[in-house]
Each structure stands twice: as structure tokens, then as C-alpha cells.
Amino acid sequence: MEEEKPVTTAKETLPSNHFTETDLQKEWEQFLKDLQRKDIIIYSAISSFRLQKKGEDIVEVTYPSESAKIEFEKVRADFFNHFMHKVNHFNITIEYKNDTSLKKEIITKRKIFDKFAEINPLLKDLDEIFKFDLN
After folding, report:
1. Residues 107 and 115 sit within 8 Å (Cβ to Cβ)
2. What is the pLDDT of residue 10?
3. Which structural domains are found in the chain, ordered by start?
4. Alpha-helical regions (H) of 1-132
5. pLDDT above 90 covers what percent of the chain?
6. Which of 103, 122, 123, 126 is most buried, judged by most C-beta within 10 A?
């Protein structure tokens, strides 16, 4: 029987050129513009994400919810592969941070009406009488 020889591969040292916060923001904005044309659903889910450079090799991705993060995972490789080639820096680590204040609340006519009704309870009486269509 022939002995198996362990395969040793020398780890290739990939370039780690410097990139700036401006580079990151510019590419992220361009990526979002392209994504808006290609896939509006994913764009809507991740457009409130914030990317920030933390250290030379770390990018912090701040996201509003777990469901939005799942949508981001679908396009994460596309963005970071493009970005790493653009800045010639291939050792970027991604750190995630949840920030619920980034959530976009969709304001409907009903929510606006309810807010005003809290201030002036007579509006609720008018709504019951006239059956306002606030859809």
C-alpha cells in the first residue's frame, strides 16, 4: 500500500492595500444604486444598512433587523468581492452590529390619523360617524 503524503500548500499572501472610509461609502452607494435597478426587494431591505471602516482590515455592518441581515447575506459576496478587487485589499473581516434605530417605519394615513386622534379625541368620534377611508 502506498502512503498518503500530506499536501502542504503555502498560504498565498494576498494584497492588503490601504482603503479609506470614503472609498467604502462611495462603493456602497454605487452598489445600492445598481441593486435598486436590479432587485428592488433586496434594495428596500438593505438600503438602511450602514457600513463603517473599523481598523485597517475590519468593516462593521450595522443592520436594523435579522430579516434584513438575511437579505444582505444574499448580496454580501457580490459587494465585498467587488470592493476587495477595487481597493486591492483581500483580508477584510466583516463584523455585524444590530441597531434597531435604523428600522424604517412606514407611515400610513391611518397611523397619522391615530397620532392626531391621541391629541384630539374628537377625531375618533368623527371617524366613527363619517367612516373615513384612511387606507
Report:
1. no
2. 44
3. 21-100 (3.30.300.180), 105-135 (no CATH)
4. 21-38, 40-46, 66-87, 109-119, 122-130
5. 50
6. 123
Residues 117, 122: Cα–Cα separation, whole Å: 7
Query: Which cell numbers hold the place of 45?
Result: 431591505
Return the C-alpha cell found at 86.
477595487
Name the pTM for this structure.
0.66
Average pLDDT of the chain is 86
Reading the block at residue 85, the C-alpha cell is 478587487
Strand ranges across the sheet with 93-98: 50-53, 58-63, 93-98
**CA neighbor of 47 nearest in space, from 8, 103, 97, 2:** 103
